[in-house]
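Board notes (copied after class):
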Amino acid sequence: LSNPSLLLTVWCCELTVSCCELIVWCCELTVWCCELIVTCCELTVLCCELIVTCCELTVLCCELIVTCCELTVLCCELIVTCCELTVSCCELTVSCCELIVTCCELIVSFKERQDLPTISWTEKQPSAFFAAVTSVMEQ
């Protein structure tokens, strides 16, 4: 090994082996980096999909809230309508009661007058009944 040329050759061979090992290591590192990049891309896609899903869910929730509000408004309108109908029914009941009182007063008035003809109601002759009532009221 005293020959400088041989020494240089050995040293160059060792350096070449080291360089080859370094190249292999760099290639492995590049593959690992590529795999990491792919993993990061997949994670980014998943995150984007999650963001889209969250946005869609937010839209659905907003639509559901709007629908609930519309239903509440409809229910309120229905309650108001029912209240108005109840008031109308009460007014109608009062009118019916007043009519019954008037009829009772009319019957009492008829009974107090002994010279009146007997007024009888029959399903077959309702017009005769009303004619008799009209004639009594005109007296």
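Comment from the instructor: The mean pLDDT is 84. The chain has one domain: 8-108.
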